[in-house]
Write a structure and sequence with these properties.
Length: about 270
């Protein structure tokens, strides 16, 4: 998804990672929802965070967005640590949450203008980006409509336009296609890949749907708060015993975490 302003921007080819997670741990009582998680993501990649329900995907996103504080470890977004410099870190972050977070009674345009104001975008820049973003996703005729009048797929598209208004280097997508029809799923993913190609955005796409990650640059397989595998889809499948990625995913997440980790290391 591009506009005239985006086309003039150089790709995000910074030498520092867009996201670096180091020893991240988050507990709820005795249970560790995230258990010493570490990984690093560069610019320009579509990275799938694949895991079953309850694996810790949403907890990770809640820590990365500052909604929860980690018990141990830290995350660094575009060189800014969430623990020590949260405002600077979150300024480089765009998010589409699992649960819809638009104001249903406001128009599409009003929802988007409010987000642009929060990020301090000049009104002229905001208007240009809102217009271009909505046009790219087929929403040009929906700007004056209340969000509650839109389909689920179009609401998701509005959330994506909103997440990209301030041109973040890191985009988090938390189970973004839940409840969407096949065409809406395809359109949403196509828009994401277009933004990666245009700006070098780093996208972390959380899902439990294996078919959504077949063409990912990289897969992080998460189970019970730990990373079981990290690599291309083919490499992850091979690391977890061979066969297709779906079969490997089912096998690995059916085992206790320790057993799955031992098998991956064998």
């Amino acid at each position: 998804m591009t506009d005239a302003g985006t086309a003039k921007l150089p790709p995000l080819t910074t030498s520092i990672p867009m996201l670096a997670v180091d020893g991240l741990t988050k507990r709820y009582g005795a249970r560790a929802a995230l258990d010493g998680m570490s990984f690093s993501l560069p610019a320009g990649q579509f990275v799938a965070l694949l895991g079953p329900n309850g694996a810790g995907k949403s907890t990770l996103f809640q820590v990365l967005t500052g909604l929860f504080a980690a018990d141990q470890g830290d995350a660094v977004i575009a060189g800014h640590a969430i623990r020590n410099a949260p405002a600077q870190a979150l300024g480089h972050l765009g998010v589409v949450f699992q649960q819809m977070s638009l104001d249903l009674d406001l128009s599409v345009a009003a929802n988007l203008r409010f987000h642009a104001d929060l990020h301090g975008l000049p009104r002229a820049v905001a208007a240009e980006r809102i217009s271009a973003g909505c046009a790219a996703l087929g929403l040009a005729d929906e700007l004056k409509r209340a969000v509650r009048e839109l389909s689920g797929g179009n609401r998701r598209k509005v959330e994506l336009v909103r997440a990209l208004l301030h041109r973040p280097g890191l985009l988090l997508m938390d189970e973004p296609t839940v409840g969407l029809d096949p065409k809406s799923r395809r359109d949403l993913k196509a828009a994401i890949l277009a933004d990666i190609a245009a700006r070098g955005t780093c996208v972390l796409w959380a899902t439990h749907l294996v078919d959504e990650v077949a063409d990912a640059d990289r897969v992080l397989l998460l189970h019970q708060g730990r990373l079981l595998a990290d690599g291309t889809p083919a490499a992850v499948a091979a690391e977890l015993g061979g066969g297709g990625l779906e079969d490997a995913f089912i096998r690995a997440t059916a085992l206790p975490t320790g057993a799955a980790s031992h098998r991956a290391a064998a």
